[in-house]
Specification:
about 525 residues; alpha+beta
Length: about 525
């Protein structure tokens, strides 16, 4: 983890009531139900267009009761259940319903008012705008299947299989509610907020719930504009909605440690790697927002085209001046450089994002080595030790683009021509590191390549985890464990380790072989 990663760990610890519980998005868990909804819409397109003859469906008052349908995301997936509930508040933009079984135990009036206030009135980034206004101004107006301008927010114990530890679903939106008379649908603009294990009576619980609200409300808006949009674009917009409201970007370790993965790919519901997909999508759309401003999202969401075609249509409509291909190349450079002084295209406004993790070489002497880059992906070859680098890459693919990102004062980005030796005599003096970024611009197949390099070697290198005062801390109890892991230097031999403690105390520890997991249980073999 970088310093920013350490801050994210501390922030997550503050936002979750139970240290062994962590929130996950609910959207991807409804994949099968959403496929059925989309198939139904394809056969009945009139079902998502509210009749102008219909009058507003609801006349709720505080104290009104209603039984809503909810989706089982836990032990019995793809089933539905009734949620008897009562309206506990009415805001400018929302009706607040609470599952009756929770009232007075996990949810009280102050919790309801706090959620309503965050949705209607204020977010961490703007005390004068709630989640509703922030999302609507960024992505567009929500659909209106029920003829009532207010959004229904249902606080309930989401049936997600949570049993005291592990993942829980903090909230979700389901498109079946937006289809007239769809089986088990509610014929209403509604999204669901969890109250177990989230404690909405605490500020941290409201923050977690409203981060999810910003994410899920974007899904509602996007469904009304383009229900067929691919997951990568839809989820990327929802991830940006979270950071745009001030709730922070999604954990980036999933992407920076998996850059060689198809950009638009979205893994199946049961695959834990799908969380890396969220990380990748969140980072790509954060870059788009940082580069062009939030105004770029409305035409992207409004486009009837999907995927890259929809992105290009939205970018062109907005007048961005760059298309997807150009943005993708610049983004891959920004992920290892992140320095807008070199070129505004090569950096973020969002601070302290962790850099892409590549294969690290502490000596420039590398024998002929093969590599492969997935479609719309990148591989990073990082030279961090030695001097006078000479590098050659060969490939039979015409879809590879290769850049050299040289870190110095100032840094710079150069083209590397396949089949032609790249010579940097300033490596080791003017430039402390050279990152070779191998990009596959092809949209369908992997691209293979070979590379080799030479130069003056070094005898030792220092691997640093944290050089400055820590930006956050882990509140560990007696008996807890924490691991710091490093990518070893190829061909190197470990010489020594230094550890600094921030405060008075003691710890026991050791050196273990990396298992490949950031949370190894058990640890690898002790050295």
């Amino acid at each position: 983890l970088s310093a920013s990663g350490q801050t994210l760990v501390a922030r997550r610890a503050e936002e979750t009531l139970q240290p062994d519980a962590y929130p996950i998005p609910g959207s991807h868990l409804l994949e099968e139900q959403n496929k059925s909804v989309l198939a139904y819409i394809a056969q009945h397109p009139e079902s998502v267009v509210r009749s102008k003859l219909l009058k507003p469906s609801w006349s709720f008052a505080v104290g009104s009761t209603h039984t809503w349908k909810a989706t089982n995301i836990g032990a019995v997936p793809n089933t539905y259940y009734d949620v008897p509930s009562t309206c506990r508040a009415i805001g400018t933009r929302c009706y607040m319903f609470v599952e009756d079984a929770l009232w007075g135990s996990r949810v009280n009036q102050s919790a309801v008012d706090a959620v309503m206030n965050a949705f209607d009135n204020q977010t961490p980034v703007n005390p004068a705008k709630g989640v509703y206004q922030m999302d609507v101004e960024t992505f567009g107006t929500p659909p209106d299947i029920d003829g009532d301008p207010r959004i229904i927010i249902l606080i309930l114990d989401i049936q997600d299989g949570f049993s005291g530890s592990g993942p829980y679903v903090a909230g979700y939106f389901w498109g079946g509610n937006e289809v007239q008379n769809y089986p088990n649908g509610n014929n209403a603009e509604i999204y669901y907020v969890d109250a177990n294990p989230v404690d909405l009576t605490q500020a941290s619980g409201v923050t977690a719930a409203m981060s999810t609200a910003a994410h899920e409300f974007q899904h509602m808006i996007h469904f009304g504009k383009d229900p067929q949009e691919i997951s990568f674009v839809n989820e990327g917009c929802s991830c940006f909605a979270q950071s745009n409201c001030g709730y922070g970007i999604r954990d980036q370790n999933g992407y920076v440690n998996e850059t060689n993965h198809y950009l638009l790919g979205w893994r199946a519901t049961g695959d834990p790697g799908v969380l890396n997909d969220y990380s990748r999508a969140g980072r790509f759309f954060q870059y788009i927002g940082d580069q062009f401003g939030v105004g770029v999202f409305m035409p992207i969401v409004a486009s009837a085209l999907h995927g890259i075609d929809g992105l290009n249509a939205g970018l062109a409509s907005y007048g961005a001046g760059r298309n997807f291909t150009q943005i993708f190349q610049d983004w891959l450079v920004a992920n290892i450089l992140d320095d807008r002084t070199v070129n505004p295209n090569y950096g973020y406004l969002y601070p302290d994002l962790p850099k892409a993790v590549g294969t690290s070489y502490i000596t420039p002497d590398v024998q002929l080595t093969s590599g492969a880059v997935q479609a719309l992906a990148a591989q990073y070859l990082s030279y961090t030790g030695g001097s006078n680098l000479k590098f050659t890459l060969t490939t039979s693919s015409d879809s590879l683009v290769v850049k050299a990102v040289e870190i110095g004062h100032p840094s710079r980005v150069l083209d590397v021509v396949p089949g032609v030796e790249f010579d940097e005599p300033g490596f080791g003096t003017t430039f402390s590191a050279v990152h070779i970024v191998v990009m596959n611009m092809g949209k369908a197949t992997p691209a293979n390549f070979y590379f080799q390099s030479s130069g003056n070697a070094v005898t030792s290198v220092e691997l640093k985890y944290e050089e400055t005062e820590p930006a956050g801390y882990l509140d560990l109890a007696t008996g807890d464990s924490a691991c710091v892991w490093f990518t070893g230097a190829p061909g190197g031999r470990l010489d020594s380790i230094r550890v600094a403690l921030h405060s008075v105390g003691s710890l026991s520890g050791g050196i273990y072989r990396c298992t490949g997991s950031q949370q190894p249980t058990p640890l690898g073999a002790k050295i």
